[in-house]
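=== RUN LOG ===
request id: a7f3
mode: sequence -> structure
chains: 1
length: 89
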Amino acid sequence: MPLSVPGLVSVGLYTFMIAWNEFLFALTLTRTQDMRTVPIGIQLLMGQHSYEWNEMLAMSMLGCIPIVGLFLFFQRYFIGGMTAGAVKI
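=== RESULT ===
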């Protein structure tokens, strides 16, 4: 089990990233503005004739913070997984 922890952490982080950036299900399954996710909010800032670039960039950066935070938190497991099979000479 200890050797599988880096793989499980990697799969868990990748699954969270996929769910965090999901667009189609979030668009069809949310009914109110309160329930909208970050990708839907960014898409709503794009109008027919104008784009709110400053707000889109700010929302994109705020949407990246949880992913980067999780990666930094679990970074020791990634490094441990890469060096677990390494041969020391």
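=== NOTES ===
The longest helix spans residues 53-73.
Helices lie at 5-20, 24-29, 38-44, 53-73, 75-84.
=== END ===
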